[in-house]
Amino acid sequence: MPELDLPPLPSPAEIQVGLHWLDLLGVGAFAMSGALLGVRKRFDLFGVIVLGCVTAVGGGAIRDTLTGQTPPLFLRDETYLWVALFGAALAFSFGERLARFERAMSVFDTVGLGLFAASGALGAIKIGLGPLGVVFAGMLSGVGGGIVRDLIANEVPEVMYRREQLYATAAAAGAGIVWLLHTRQAQWHLGTLEIQLLGAATVMLLRWISRRGWVKLPVRRLPEG
Questions:
Q1: Which of 40, 105, 106, 183 has the most CB atoms around its CB within 10 Å?
Q2: Glycine transporter domain: from which residue to which, for each copy (predicted)?
Q3: Domain-embedded: residue 111
């Protein structure tokens, strides 16, 4: 039987570089989504850029503060801040055109959500938080920027009512998977990178399922009058 000439698997360093680029894509998508909200609200250039940058790096800043990693990553590696600034400026300049690519931006947004939630959970594990603390830190890492964005724009945070598309719930589930896999790390011979990828993949899968309309969170309605 002839041997298959398969390409070599990427090394851990190459995978880490790939994750870094995906992380930056997520930051850019977060920045553009926040900036587009500012454009719709008729903010000026400064307001749009501030809203975009807060959306992009706010969750990571909350994550780093909760896990004791100061100063936050976007100040230690200004690449994140430059990407956020570029994404916000792009949305201000080409807002109408970018709105047509909302589906593609949503993909990057989901990737960023998954990676941020997983990295936030790993950071919480490093400082010894319990399962609930890990889930909370991971979820807040993913959705924190969006919450601050909506509060600045005088909106009810979308994570509180967007039941049709799991968002905060997906981030929390991904963080929970990270904690669960960490407790079995030695038994299942998992590395930190594999745990992060599996946690992020959980978030992306749940987002995809909810977009198909297969899962919705229940809403309790009280009788009027």
A1: 105
A2: 21-94, 107-182
A3: yes
User: 148: which residues sit within 8 A by CB, 6+ positions away?
Assistant: 54, 55, 58
Domain containing residue 166: 16-211
The total of structural domains in the chain comes to 1
Helices 102-126 and 192-211, axial angle in degrees (round to 10): 140
Residue 172 lies in a domain: yes
- Domain annotation covers residue 155: yes
